[in-house]
């Protein structure tokens, strides 16, 4: 059919490597630090270093070198801090891998021969050691006044009940379970229940549409769907069960009837039970069913390289990839990075504001903190509801000591002014973190000076869904910070900066960020498509992992992430594939072509800008613009809907027919004087027409 053909054309477009004149040629101009800012050093404040786990760069360098030269000793020691039912084969290297496609299939294995269970390490281990009464989750609902406290024992019991429920539905080791919930404690509980049984969880962010959810359920052939009646974020109601129903209908139409059970948590704060649509025989209420099961459930001992979970993420091409993380390596890396990057001490109250639907919520709201017996704050709502001081109110209420947030939220709060922040004490805070997108020196400064009263170090943590956990970040206390800079790689992470040809650059330089040799938390494959894993991450630079990000390394060896170098957008910290948005736009019958680029957006980091050409009969109108935005909302989710629709008569193409995105980015950024070489275009006049239409 015509729309399928157009979609295919769009995808093919993206298979062609992106043209880059230099790394990140036009992107994020406002984010790039000035030459002065590169030299701006902020010393570790006060006596933070005295109490920190690591207090000098030389200490770090010693450990870093050990991790590189003696991984068996270093990682063996770290892994020994966890419970293993059976130790890995210590007579063999702790890591076995191949990153070079010419030498055979790409693979990574850590702690081979070992058996453990992630849920046991997150919960049982602590409860058995007498810490069951300690607080695990401090939950704060969307509306002030809704809150809950769960101890480690409480969580373990609830996890066992859900695990027993899943078992009663014949969920076994290796089966996929899809989770589509709002930010309530039952979400991490569901994840841990899967981990207990060895079932592979696939959490789908509650902001995704029915169609996206259906695509993910079909791709991983999930047996069970765990959801909730609805969620609330600010004034917005997320009708999750209704969306889940539609997704399951799509799955049925596809001939896939595997989802036989849909377990629904009755989130009556958000929506009364009688308003929740219901399918008899398939749907079950969580509260009515799960509580009947025993609070004891034996764990399934898993091999170190058995899959733990999958998480879908967007790349430049095709549909989202279900990245697989495995038991042993992920556990060790998530737990160890949590401890050191956040300088976690007993008694800390840790708050990660990310949603469990993203990797940050997996690694630093669920697994990493729980391996360390941390107390975690979990918040269902948004920073500005019902007022702009909500975050700081929560910080004071729970005496949060470590806050980990995304620059997009920090920018939103900064826009509300300093007074709202200063109204609250925030005395409990001792460390601030940032993740998900570059943080500009200006936003960094505001976070540091206003939110942290120049008293709390900031860790700007760079990592990816693929890396499982932090890769580049200050270790607070160990070296001075620079506003807007992720600084140095974590123990054993061998970062390289490459030029266009893949040649390693030394000293101060700018180029493509890649990584030599695996770390324990690297994703092992793409679910059902190992060749896609190999071609996405290991074909660009021979023998190296390609991150998809550009970076600069300054004279102090500090790494500054400059953003994606492929066609992935980062909108409010959400990874969005331009190809997917284009695919959705061209499925509208009146849209013949679409090209999507990012532009600098004050609050979101990047905004989505779509150039659209229409069929002959169609006329540009506000109504059509809304239809196009809605079709993206429906097919992907609201967060992917383009802000700007630019009606184009045609798009700038090279003679070989490839769209020149470089030019489109310039037009979106209104940088008309700096358009660059247009001589290779098949029709250079197109550019002028586009500028006129801006
Ligand atoms: C970007 C989120 C600059 C980067 C954990 C990466 C960052 C993508 C930072 C991964 C940071 C993440 N500074 N950019 N501190 N952290 N990014 O998979 O472009 O959702 O490739 O993982 O976010 O996004 P993902």
TrEMBL record:
Residues 139-519 form the AMP-dependent synthetase/ligase domain. The keyword ATP-binding applies. PROSITE patterns: AMP_BINDING (PS00455). Residues 580-658 form the AMP-binding enzyme C-terminal domain. Its EC number is 6.2.1.1. The keyword Nucleotide-binding applies. GO terms for molecular function: acetate-CoA ligase activity; ATP binding. Residues 60-122 form the Acetyl-coenzyme A synthetase N-terminal domain. SUPFAM superfamilies: Acetyl-CoA synthetase-like (SSF56801). It comes from the Eukaryota. It catalyses: acetate + ATP + CoA = acetyl-CoA + AMP + diphosphate. Transmembrane segments: none annotated. Keywords: ATP-binding, Ligase, Nucleotide-binding. Belongs to the ATP-dependent AMP-binding enzyme family. This is Acetyl-coenzyme A synthetase. It comes from Riccia sorocarpa.
């Amino acid at each position: 059919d015509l729309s399928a053909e157009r979609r295919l054309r769009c995808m093919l477009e993206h298979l062609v490597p992106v043209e880059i004149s230099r790394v990140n040629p036009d992107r994020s101009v406002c984010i790039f630090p000035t030459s002065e800012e590169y030299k701006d050093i902020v010393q570790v404040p006060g006596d933070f270093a005295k109490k920190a786990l690591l207090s000098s760069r030389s200490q770090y360098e010693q450990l870093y070198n050990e991790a590189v030269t003696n991984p068996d000793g270093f990682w063996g020691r770290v892994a020994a801090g966890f419970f293993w039912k059976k130790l890995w084969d210590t007579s063999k290297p702790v890591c076995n891998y191949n990153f070079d496609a010419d030498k055979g299939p790409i693979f990574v294995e850590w702690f081979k021969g070992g058996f453990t269970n992630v849920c046991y390490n997150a919960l049982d281990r602590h409860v058995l050691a007498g810490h069951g009464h300690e607080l695990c989750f401090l939950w704060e609902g969307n509306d002030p006044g809704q809150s809950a406290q769960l101890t480690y024992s409480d969580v373990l019991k609830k996890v066992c009940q859900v695990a027993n429920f899943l078992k009663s539905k014949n969920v076994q080791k290796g089966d996929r379970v899809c989770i589509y919930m709002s930010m309530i404690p039952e979400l991490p509980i569901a994840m841990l229940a899967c981990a207990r049984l060895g079932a592979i969880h696939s959490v789908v962010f509650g902001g995704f549409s029915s169609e996206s959810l259906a695509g993910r359920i079909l791709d991983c052939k999930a047996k069970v769907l765990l959801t909730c009646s609805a969620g609330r974020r600010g004034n917005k109601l997320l009708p999750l069960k209704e969306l889940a129903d539609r997704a399951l209908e799509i799955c049925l139409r596809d001939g896939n009837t595997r989802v036989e059970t849909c377990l629904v948590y009755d989130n009556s704060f958000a929506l009364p039970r009688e308003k929740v649509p219901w399918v008899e025989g398939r749907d079950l209420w969580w509260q009515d069913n799960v509580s009947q099961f025993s609070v004891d459930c034996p764990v399934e001992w898993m091999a170190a390289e058995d899959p733990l979970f999958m998480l879908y993420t967007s790349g430049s091409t095709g549909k989202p990839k279900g990245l697989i993380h495995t038991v042993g390596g992920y556990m060790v890396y998530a737990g160890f990075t949590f401890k050191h990057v956040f300088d976690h001490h007993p008694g800390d109250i840790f708050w990660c504001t990310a949603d469990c639907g993203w990797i940050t919520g997996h690694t630093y709201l669920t697994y990493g903190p729980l391996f360390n017996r941390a107390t975690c704050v979990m918040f269902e709502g948004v920073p500005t509801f019902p007022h702009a001081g909500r975050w700081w109110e929560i910080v004071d209420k729970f005496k949060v000591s470590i806050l980990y947030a995304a620059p997009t939220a920090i920018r939103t709060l900064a826009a509300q002014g300093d007074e709202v922040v200063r109204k609250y004490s925030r005395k409990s805070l001792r460390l601030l973190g940032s993740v998900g997108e570059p943080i500009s020196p200006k936003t960094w400064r505001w976070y540091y000076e206003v939110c942290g009263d120049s008293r709390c170090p900031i860790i700007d943590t760079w990592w990816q869904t693929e890396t499982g956990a932090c890769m580049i970040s200050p270790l607070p206390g160990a070296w001075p910070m620079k506003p807007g800079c992720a600084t140095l790689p974590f123990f054993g992470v061998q970062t390289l900066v490459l030029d266009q040809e893949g040649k390693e650059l030394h000293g101060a330089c700018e180029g493509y960020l890649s990584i030599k040799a695996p770390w324990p938390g690297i994703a092992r494959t793409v679910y059902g498509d190992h060749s896609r894993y190999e071609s996405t991450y290991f074909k660009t630079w021979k023998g190296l992992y390609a991150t998809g990000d550009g970076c600069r390394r300054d004279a102090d060896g500090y790494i500054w992430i400059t953003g994606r170098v492929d066609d992935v957008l980062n909108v409010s910290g959400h990874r969005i594939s331009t190809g997917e948005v284009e695919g959705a736009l061209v499925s509208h019958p009146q849209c013949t072509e679409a090209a999507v680029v990012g532009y600098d957006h004050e609050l979101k980091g990047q905004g989505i800008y779509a150039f659209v050409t229409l069929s002959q009969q169609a006329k540009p109108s506000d109504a059509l613009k809304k239809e196009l935005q809605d079709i993206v909302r429906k097919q992907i989710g609201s967060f992917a809907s383009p802000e700007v629709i630019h009606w184009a008569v045609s798009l700038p193409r090279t003679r070989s027919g490839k769209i020149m995105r470089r030019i489109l980015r310039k037009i979106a950024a209104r940088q008309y004087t700096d358009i660059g070489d247009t001589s290779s275009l098949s029709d250079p006049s197109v550019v002028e027409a586009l500028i006129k239409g801006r």
